[in-house]
């Protein structure tokens, strides 16, 4: 339902897109393999037009690649891809945090602390999806406050590439607990008026690939 109470009906392209995104997350579509578009369209009961439109959107999000005269291939997520995403997101989020810091009010800090508290509670009760939602919402607070919608949009797209992907392990408790602890360090620095230090910590530690590499390896590549 929309805000006005009207029923929101997704277009066929949007429905196909949502279906494909879910298939990517489940690992049904194999990376580095060309897709059989005719078979896919038939299995979904749609023509190739909405399928192609949905795949074009997925290409813009770096999930697939259209290769001339060959077809559409699902992109793998390699270690180098993750390293580059970490570097990009770290740079953008630290810039956003610096811009947002002078505008953060007590209500923002209360919200950020509450989100961390809810993240911890979700971890303690095994509510993984809720924890992820609180984790993303924590970062979205300063991404919104910074006022740069292009940074926010780019960061969201990169995080989709990281998080909505097949993984060897669905959850690493130690890593998630560490993430929340790092949030607290960032908040402490901000409340002390040390925005540059908070931004540097966010960039170099929270999104520092070398620091997080062991967890990345376990999460994406190590066999369970």
Description:
This protein is mostly helical and 224 residues long. 68% of the residues lie in helices and 4% in strands. It has 10 helices and 2 strands; from the N terminus they run H-H-H-E-E-H-H-H-H-H-H-H. It has helices spanning 12-26, 37-44, 48-60, 79-100, 106-124, 128-145, 149-163, 173-191, 195-206, 209-220; strands spanning 64-67, 71-74. Strands 1-2 form a two-stranded antiparallel sheet. A hairpin with a 3-residue loop joins strand 1 (64-67) and strand 2. The longest helix is centred in the middle third of the chain and has 22 residues, at 79-100. The radius of gyration is 19 Å and the shape is globular. The mean pLDDT is 91.
Distinctive features:
about 5% strand; mainly alpha; about 220 residues; 2 strands
Topology:
Blueprint: H1 12-26, H2 37-44, H3 48-60, E1 64-67, E2 71-74, H4 79-100, H5 106-124, H6 128-145, H7 149-163, H8 173-191, H9 195-206, H10 209-220
Antiparallel strand pairs: 1-2
Helix pairs in contact: 1-3, 4-6, 4-7, 4-9, 4-10, 5-6, 5-8, 8-9
The largest beta-sheet arranges its strands as: 1-2
Uncertain runs = none
Rg computed from alpha carbons, rounded to a whole number of angstroms = 19 Å
Structural class: mainly alpha
**Terminal Cα span:** 40 Å
Strand content of the residues, in percent? under 5%
Shape: globular
Let me know the number of strands. 2
Give the count of helical stretches.
Answer: 10
H-E order: HHHEEHHHHHHH
What is the average per-residue confidence, as pLDDT, rounded to a whole number?
A: 91
Helix content: 55-70%
The main β sheet shows up as: 2 strands, antiparallel
